[in-house]
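F.,

This is the one I mentioned.
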């Protein structure tokens, strides 16, 4: 018997729609729930085993709405992964720092990071 993990993809895509396309592809491949940041505000994300969080990179960090969502959590998801779309994906480590630090402060382990 296999057990399925509950996974959600939460994203902000505000410029060209690239992050929306990445979130759609991941969600379809993994059969996950896919939520915009606005939709995720009304959802208890702590019920998920894994939550992917992503947006485009604006001024060297994830979109403000995504960072504000994480800051608002009283109970974080069990685990997270970070993704982004950016013009300089090789700077991922620095561009993801604010979101990674917010997740760490909430006690939510980051399993992996991806940027394209």
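My design for it:
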């Amino acid at each position: 018997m296999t057990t399925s993990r509950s996974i959600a993809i939460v994203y902000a895509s505000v410029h060209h729609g690239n992050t929306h396309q990445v979130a759609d592809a991941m969600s379809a491949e993994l059969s996950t729930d896919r939520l915009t940041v606005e939709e995720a505000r009304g959802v208890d994300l702590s019920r998920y085993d894994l939550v992917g969080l992503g947006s485009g990179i604006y001024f060297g960090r994830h979109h403000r709405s995504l960072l504000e969502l994480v800051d608002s959590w009283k109970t974080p998801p069990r685990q997270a992964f970070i993704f982004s779309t950016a013009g300089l994906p090789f700077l991922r480590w620095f561009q993801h720092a604010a979101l990674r630090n917010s997740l760490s402060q909430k006690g939510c382990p980051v399993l992996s990071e991806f940027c394209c």
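The longest strand covers residues 50-58.

Talk soon.
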